[in-house]
Design a protein that fits this description.
- The protein has 499 residues and is an alpha/beta fold.
- It folds into three domains: 145 residues, 5'-nuclease (Rossmann fold), CATH 3.40.50; 76 residues, Elongation Factor Tu (Ef-tu), domain 3 (Beta Barrel), CATH 2.40.30; 214 residues, P-loop containing nucleotide triphosphate hydrolases (Rossmann fold), CATH 3.40.50.300.
- The chain is built from 14 helices and 18 strands.
- Strands 3-4-2-1-5-6 form a six-stranded mixed beta sheet. Strands 7-10-11-12-9-8 form a six-stranded mixed beta sheet, with no helix packed on it. A six-stranded parallel beta sheet has the order 15-14-16-17-13-18, with helices on both faces.
- It is elongated, with a radius of gyration of 27 Å.
- The chain starts with 40 loop residues before the first strand and ends with a helix.
- It comes from Tepidimonas taiwanensis.
- GO terms for molecular function: ATP binding.
- It holds the Pfam family PhoH.
């Protein structure tokens, strides 16, 4: 390769402050602003492209530089059917399409907007010559990470007038870069929220002076066993469809309701069904707290097609989802069967390949299902004797199918009750693949604990569960509840608090 001097990209001053859009969403997302001045030159690590193939187009007016070793690593990781391999192939296809659009010499750079990504107005540069740089003694020169650091250091020396920034998902890589005096950042464009505390909870406490504010303007009526309230005022601006509101004050009757209509400056609240009472038990299960009551209202509502439940260990997510599913499959005949799946991510060491059919291979991952079915079968058939309990258990088992996520693409579920457990370990792309399997008459329930993410490179802000909760809030046929109180045992509750 002939030694040539890399082109100097003109230091174009910024005209307007930029706010990069979140991946896979048309809405604008708040993002950390870059300072005014020349365009930054971002050097992408391989793990960024394998994490989000569309990351090439997420840097707005800034330029991107790809070291040759990054292309080598993409090539080494393109084989296989894993999510990483698919992302590597997608990134390679995007790079090939960009290079082909230029058609000739790519050394002057490739406009990132060439494929129709109008928000990406920067330029993509490939490494077309050796970029020697002296790294401290003791750092292995042949390691891929160190080669990328060498490129960043060479670019910084060659372009002192520009900010050269390494973007990597690898924490140790960023630490090494900063130790060498190089700027390094995490790739944060895939984050739905900067702070998990801001995640939509699905519930809202009405102010203490709520009834005083409403005064004589509130309208109420009875219909179908529910009481409806039409309210107005400033509180309406904070409401979303299918959000639960509650009013609890000493000496006054409580109000537990769901937002069923929003029109201008008015909203209609409908009181919820009381699943804390034994007469409304769902497969023998009653709600033990306010949030569980709200969750059962969503799970038992045929007009709600998509339910997300978040909460710490022992809050009853799986138990309530299964109880509602069994009632609607076996008693009400609303759905034909329950399909349950989960992300097969190990907490510790992997146990290797498992023998048997698809359902048998998924068996070890479904311990939570077995535990809850044992409880539900015992509670529902306790008056039928040993034979009755065995028959009930067999009937329940025959209506529950355990499926692996690996074989979901291309499927369509008709009139099914689908439960996705441990959804916090799914990426937004995997979540989209699963949700789009739903056909007519299917209800889909996603559950997870954002404090127990076991997947590398996923955080509370970028988890697929966070992604769908944020996207589906306010949809008329979807609902979310964050369960706050554990009900498993006093030991589990205390452990969740102190450990």
């Amino acid at each position: 390769m002939p030694p040539t001097t890399p082109p100097q990209v003109p230091a174009t001053p910024r005209t307007t402050p930029a706010t990069p859009a979140r991946a896979a969403t048309p809405r604008r997302a708040p993002h950390r602003r870059h300072g005014a001045g020349p365009r930054k030159l971002f050097v992408l690590d391989t793990n960024v492209l394998m994490h989000d193939p569309s990351s090439l187009f997420r840097f707005e007016e800034h330029d991107i530089f790809l070291p040759m070793i990054v292309l080598e690593e993409l090539d080494n990781n393109k084989k296989g059917m894993s999510e990483v391999a698919r992302n590597a192939r997608q990134a390679s296809r995007s790079l090939d399409a960009l290079a082909a659009h230029v058609g000739g010499d790519i050394r002057p750079g490739v406009p990132l907007s060439a494929l129709g990504n109008t928000e990406a107005t920067g330029t993509l540069f490939f490494q077309t010559e050796p970029l020697p740089a002296e790294l401290p003694a003791g750092i292995p020169q042949g390691k891929a990470d160190n080669q990328i650091l060498s490129v960043v250091q060479a670019l910084k020396a060659r372009h002192p007038e520009r900010d050269v920034v390494l973007v990597s998902k690898d924490i140790n890589m960023r630490i090494k870069a900063r130790a060498l005096g190089l700027a390094a950042e995490d790739y944060e464009n895939d984050k739905v929220l900067d702070d998990a505390e801001l995640l939509y909870t699905g519930t809202l406490a009405l102010p203490a002076d709520f009834w005083a504010q409403q005064g004589q303007s509130v309208q109420s009526w009875q219909q179908g066993g529910h009481t409806f309230y039409r309210i107005t005022g400033a509180v309406v601006d904070a409401l979303l469809l299918n959000q639960f509101v509650y009013y609890e004050a000493p000496g006054e009757p409580p109000l537990y309701a769901r937002v069923v209509e929003l029109r201008g400056r008015s909203a209609v609240l409908r009181t919820v069904k009381d699943y804390t009472h034994l007469k409304n038990a769902v497969w023998g299960v009653t709600a033990r707290n306010r949030e569980q009551n709200f969750a059962l209202n969503l799970l038992m509502d045929p007009e709600v097609d998509f339910v997300t439940l978040a909460g710490t260990a022992g809050t009853g997510k799986t138990l309530m989802a299964l109880a509602a599913g069994l009632t609607q499959v076996l008693d009400e005949r609303r759905y034909t069967e329950i399909i349950m799946t989960r992300a097969t991510v190990s907490v510790g060491e992997d146990i290797g390949f498992l023998p048997g059919t698809e359902e048998e291979k998924m068996g070890p991952w479904m311990g939570a299902l077995d535990d809850n079915l044992e409880f539900l079968a015992k509670g529902h058939g306790n008056t039928a004797g040993e034979w009755g309990r065995a028959a009930t258990n067999d009937l329940i088992r025959s209506r529950i199918k355990i499926k692996s996520m690996n074989f979901m693409r291309g499927r369509t579920f008709l009139n099914k009750y689908v439960i996705i457990d441990e959804a916090q370990n799914l990426t937004p792309k995997q979540m989209k693949t699963l949700i789009t399997r739903a056909g007519p008459g299917t209800k889909l329930v996603c559950m997870g604990n954002l404090a127990q993410i076991d997947t590398p490179y996923l955080t509370e802000g970028s988890s697929g569960l966070t992604y769908v909760v944020d996207r589906f809030k306010g949809w008329p046929h979807g609902g979310h509840v964050t369960l706050a109180r554990g009900e498993r045992s006093r030991l589990a509750d205390f452990a969740s608090e102190v450990l």
